[in-house]
What we know:
The complex is a heterodimer of chains A (144) and B (150). Chain A is mainly beta and 144 residues long.
Amino acid sequence: MIFFPPASLLSWLAQSYGDAPLLLTPWVLLFDFGDPTASVPVVRTSQILANADFVGLAFSSQAASLESLDNSTIQLMDAATGEQFFNDPLKTTNLCAPGSNTSTCYPRLIEGNTAIVATLTPNAAFTQTDVMVGYQGFLIRGFN
Amino acid sequence: MQNSFDFLEIDRVLALLKPGRRLRIKPYSYPFNFATIGAGLTVQATRVIDANCDFLWCATTIAPQNLAHIYGVQIQDSGTGEFYLPSSIPFLFLGGWLSFSDSGGNSIGLGFPRLIPANSNLLASVTDLTGAGAADGQLALHGVRVYEYD
């Protein structure tokens, strides 16, 4: 469950987009890490469409066994600005639980045509396969 | 992690705490990596809040999640000496779960967010509550960065 009331989001978007009519489309940025090798970082990039901004709300993860990704850390970065999402890489389970949308405390507005870079660093005990992390939110297209 | 209040409440709280200031707010997290804990012992980890913005602490998680009940947690502001919690309390009283399984869960947020000034030096103490030792892990404070503009 994502606790972001749609009316609150619309009110919040008005701070950035004013009275412009908005087309909002639910969206997920997927980071497919495949079958990571223990102790070898995996970097994946997800491109945001050129004609839409993205608001990120929550993260979720999955792996083949639906088990948690405790034995790994993750960091995300806005490739356009170099801004990191966390002060230091988070244990993946501190960011998201498998099969469970994990809200961030506040929505993050990311401009269109940038890319989000995710770095998953498995530790020596990591054995998960088919690892994916999703960044859920919605696309915004504004019209003047 | 699960928010316990509408995110616009963060805007309203910060408007009251910082009246008249233009603010920019972004989600952010501060992790504390702690080492393996010996039987009945405590380990410590530090983290400095970024110098260019305050941090509004809203929620807390710990990993490994399936061991959340065996960790006691205390956080102290090393600069002021202030303890954030009444004592070393079991983690589940700080970030209990809305739903929980061995593979994960949704941690609830704080009852009220806490504003931590920029450049604060936080010291997290994590205690083994089992008396048998506990695995290494990571405590994470989640919230928002608060940038102020004139």
